[in-house]
Structures are given as C-alpha cells and as structure tokens.
Design a protein that fits this description.
This protein is mainly α. It starts with a helix and ends in a 9-residue tail after the last helix.
C-alpha cells in the first residue's frame, strides 16, 4: 500500500480506535487538491505569464468544483 495512504489512515483513527471514514475521504480530496495547487505540477506546460494565469484559474475552478461536489470547505484548515 502507498505510504501516503498509510499516513492518512493513521490520521483517521479517533482516541477510541474507531476509523472515521468521512475524515479519510476528506483527507484524500484535500491531498489531491494540494497536489493540483503545486505550481511545479501544472507549470510544466506553461510558457508565458498569460498561460500561467489561465492554468491557475483552471486549478481554482477544479478546486471549487470538488469543494461543492464533496461538500468540503477546501479554503479552511482541517479540524
């Protein structure tokens, strides 16, 4: 199993040893959004500042869509 998935699984157990599935799903979505927002990932095909603005706009549109679809506020830190 992927090491990052294992790390997320560990974060999802509460003090009583119960696994919180909703938190696990939210952590995966948040992790995917963090990867998308890394400029080194989407700037590989960007050649001008105009392209960079477009790419950044597309990423934020995707983040907003994921936020609405999964009902997760991706602008606030995880509690």
């Amino acid at each position: 199993m992927n090491e990052r998935i294992k790390e997320l699984i560990v974060e999802c157990y509460n003090p009583y040893g119960e696994f919180r599935y909703e938190k696990f799903a939210e952590l995966i979505v948040r992790d995917c959004v963090a990867v998308m927002r890394e400029k080194t990932n989407y700037n590989k095909h960007v050649y001008t500042t105009y392209d960079q603005g477009l790419s950044s706009g597309v990423i934020e549109t995707l983040v907003e869509t994921l936020s609405r679809r999964y009902n997760i506020n991706l602008t606030k830190p995880l509690e």
